[in-house]
Amino acid sequence: MQKFTTLSGIAAPLDRANVDTDQIIPKQFLKRIERTGFGEFLFFDWRYLDDGKTPDPKFELNEDRYSGAVVLIANKNFGCGSSREHAPWALDQYGFRAIISPSFADIFFNNCFKNGMLPVVLPQEIVDLLLANAKTTPGYALTVDLPGQTVSDGHGFSAHFDVDPFRKHCLLNGLDDIGLTLQDEPGITAYEATRPTWRTGVGQAA
Question: What are the Cα distances from residue 168, in Å, to 16, 18, 79, 108?
Fold first, then answer.
């Protein structure tokens, strides 16, 4: 999993509450067997007109000034709905590494950490300020500092956010569930070496 330390870049506003995972990555794209290639389908029903090819000029993320954005500023209850892990995959593969919101759906929140993304919870009034800044200030950028647990814009704004110490450790070191398990590889190997030989055939036909 990719490490997350400090992220700086363009911030894009998505001033919509209760954005669910079917809006983030519609169900028709969940048939893919790979874990890659979902970024192009992010917010598909909003990004494109009915032909599925022409970008909808009314959708905020289609504006040129948000091209290459790495921080998404969203409104409350982001990521609600079904538990599909494809939602953080799509956001990450589109280019977003951090999402700022007043609140997240629990499963989506957990899935972000497991996939190297940082969901940042800030008070509604601060998120409203950031949304307004991103809408009105060309090239508005934010720095998300995980070690220091701050969000700042280089123009005087700075806010602290809380993060679980264990999740912070995992992101800083790029550790997903597999990576955490592999930290104990020497112990696992030592245990396997002491297993009785007769047990190696458990569950196999004679």
Answer: 27, 26, 20, 17
